[in-house]
Design goal:
The protein is mostly helical. The chain has a domain of 40 residues. 47% of the residues lie in helices and 0% in strands. It is built from one helix and no strands. The protein is elongated and about 60 Å long. The termini are close together. The mean pLDDT is 80.
Length: 73
């Protein structure tokens, strides 16, 4: 398998995607903490035990725009 260096634009795009994913994760964790605090503060048996996850800003393979191995060097 051969690899190639990322172009400056690809590096910048990757940084932006990582920033967006980090911001999403921060807000997701805050939402879960709030939800857990509300659930623990409510009377026993009230509230759902199921957690709902908000959609991630990135799905697998979306970060580079193509699946690994799709490009030839």
């Amino acid at each position: 398998m051969s690899y190639r260096r990322l172009t400056p634009q690809e590096i910048e795009d990757l940084r932006n995607e990582m920033r967006a994913a980090g911001q999403w994760m921060k807000s997701e964790l805050a939402r879960r903490r709030r939800e857990r605090a509300e659930t623990e503060a409510s009377p026993s048996g009230a509230g759902s035990t199921e957690s709902v996850q908000s959609p991630s800003p990135m799905s697998n393979g979306e970060a580079s725009g193509s699946a690994p191995g799709d490009e030839e060097v």
